[in-house]
Description:
This protein is α/β, with parallel strands linked by helices and 566 residues long. It contains 21 helices and twelve strands.
Amino acid sequence: xxxxxxxxxxxxxxCLFLLLPSHQHTPAHTHTFAAALxxxxxxxxxxxxxxxxxxxxxxxxxxxxxxxxxxxLVDRWFYTRVLLGHALSWARAPAACLNFNCMLIxxxxxxxxxxxxRGSIQCCSRTAARQLDRNLTFHKLVAYMIAFHTAxxxxxxxxxxxxxxxxQLNRNSxxxxxxxxxxxxxxxxxxxxxxxxxxxxxxxxxxxxxxxLTGVVITLALxxxxxxSMEVIRRSYFEVFWYIHxxxxxxxxxxxxxxxxRIVRGQTNHxxxxxxxxxxxxxxxxxxxxxxxxxxxxxxxxxxxxWKWVLGPMILYVxxxxxxxxxxxxxxxxxxxxxxxxxxxxxxxxxxxxxxxVGQYVFIQCPSISRLEWHPFTLTSAPEEDFFTAHIRxxxxxxxxxxxxxxxDKAEPxxxxxxxxxxxxxxxxxxxxxxxxxxxxxxVGAGIGVTPFASILKSVWYKRIQNNQEVFTKKIYFYWLCPxxxxxxxxADLLQSLEGQMTEKNMSDFLSYNIYLTRWKENEAAHFxxxxxxxxxxxxxxxxxxxxxxxxxxxxFTNIASKHPG
Length: 566
């Protein structure tokens, strides 16, 4: 939203500039105009591909809606529209969009597929590869679109059921809708109105037909999935979100079978030859009689087609789950457990054949806590190490249970055989993998969000200091914002090691770091003030002093831009 706001502001500036009289085009105005153009150019470069993808997706939705709306206005559906009017098109058009979006909804959560695509696309375009980092955002957008089209589809069908009932209840043989409703009273005869008797109601039809029953199940599952996905529930009751989200299995089963009832029916091609609705609609009282050119029309429902849309993604997702199951059975050994202040748990692990890149993440499962839950954690180790680590902040039920299982609530060290068994899925890629492809890199982390940069800085240590390896990156600017002093401990050790060894090798200019403390207590402030003149920082022990408050980003960006033009 901030990027969009910036773009709109820039557009407004441009418009105001163009409206100014020519004698007011001073250098200041020219500078403002140039800055606005630069901002718009940057926005287009950064967000252009994302906007293009969204516009294509919206365009396909719009095309499918209009196409299928018009498709149900042709002659085959003439008599169906006599009963239902335009509610028929309003029901079928969103159904087509639902098929398309249900085809897409599973793809953004196929982690292994995305990881494969990232590796393939990255060879051609880093910009395209970075779009894969927004997979969950796109997943949510598709879910909202499914919810919207589901609402339209349901409302239209509620009207359709009422129209079907009205046609059956108005028992007047000179009334075309009633005549159409009476067609097909014999066994195995074709019919148009699925409500075959006037002694019924839409509620009975809803729970006694395939379309009605599956529709209710699909709708309830969708409502539960979307409501449990709200951020307040995800953050406070993650397990509720996790378990309810697996109702998507029921949702897709119901979706595939929803069309097997063939409630929406149209005239057959053969019947169109013997009963042209434009000619015969006004002669309905003589249908099938001797001397009449109009036979009684025959009707049939469309064969179910949803499976054609969702079969491919469902197969891909099943393969995804099989890969996860296979990985979950690979043995993981916990080699070290460290309890850091501010309730941060460090796990050092090994798994045969495990290979990673900087900034990647894994999903961790602890069967003794839950066999269904997998939680993502960024790796804090470097690819050069023969183990991998994750720093886990204790903020919920699952992480608290893991903390206790690893002995975090006990004073004495936990014996190795008592440590819980873990399953690891991954590693999976992120944009951080590209870090060494840029000459100048700016790393910004807040709190525990600094974890991917631990991996990057450790890799820098191995590449530049230990192995004396040349890398493309010439300068790293690192910013870390923390709300409390305890959070600094585990990461400050790494920074101290880097600081000392880079000073020894005259590489101090390679890494520029700024650490900010955003909250502090009154007694802490007095301690900082007393020790402010000490050689090392009283909080981190680094030569570089900790800063207080939050950075002025405008100044930081301006300074970095001036040091590295272009």
